[in-house]
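Researcher: Let's do a round of design. I'm pasting the structure tokens now; please hold your answer until I've finished.
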């Protein structure tokens, strides 16, 4: 089975140029929002402006630090994994494909920026650094991939396909209104995107992303 699904050099160059161009334009457009959200986060709760989250798994399994606005209380990830008071919540988190609907760690500002994917804007920096792309599969946590493949062993090949490309700021399942689906279906959609990716498809996903943000049905 071919797990790399390599595209032509011209496609890869075109995608990289598009990533850089869109990221610079979007960072410029979003600058006032970035400043406003940064101030709101500092006024709303103690802690840094950017989230101190565990590393994610990128292309070819390389770890990288994803930049996001902090939408939770300080040290939220450590609390969930290490604090006995959050043991049941952590169990629900893992059972729910590493998602929580009513997460008590989310701040007031965090609730709004998460709903409209504003917390994802700093990932434009990850794109400029070449760690992510505008469009691609979700960037998973290492423990998430390990646990979910144990739970869904049939997804092993799809995971390999997904990890053959850069993760994306937005993606196929986010804009199709299916962000709440379980890991097995989500990874299959991500793998399907990797197999069929093209500039036309990428532009279609980018075009649908603003509505996903406004409606709160997907991630930026």
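Researcher: That's everything. Go ahead.
Model: Designed sequence:
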């Amino acid at each position: 089975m071919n797990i790399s699904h390599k595209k032509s050099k011209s496609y890869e160059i075109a995608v990289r140029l598009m990533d850089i161009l869109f990221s610079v334009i979007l960072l410029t457009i979003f600058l006032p929002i970035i400043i406003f959200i940064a101030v709101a986060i500092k006024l709303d709760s103690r802690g840094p402006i950017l989230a101190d989250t565990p590393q994610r798994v990128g292309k070819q399994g390389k770890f990288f630090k994803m930049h996001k606005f902090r939408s939770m209380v300080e040290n939220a990830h450590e609390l969930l994994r290490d604090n006995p008071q959050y043991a049941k919540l952590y169990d629900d988190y893992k059972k729910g494909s590493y998602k929580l609907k009513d997460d008590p760690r989310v701040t007031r500002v965090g609730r709004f920026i998460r709903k409209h994917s504003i917390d994802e804007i700093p990932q434009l920096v990850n794109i400029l650094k070449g760690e992510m792309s505008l469009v691609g599969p979700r960037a998973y946590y290492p423990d998430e991939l390990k646990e979910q493949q144990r739970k869904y062993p049939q997804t092993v090949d799809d995971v390999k396909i997904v990890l053959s490309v850069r993760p994306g700021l937005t993606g196929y399942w986010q804009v199709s209104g299916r962000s709440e689906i379980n890991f097995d279906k989500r990874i299959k959609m991500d793998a399907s995107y990797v197999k069929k990716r093209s500039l036309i498809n990428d532009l279609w996903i980018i075009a649908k992303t603003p509505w996903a943000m406004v409606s709160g049905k997907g991630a930026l």
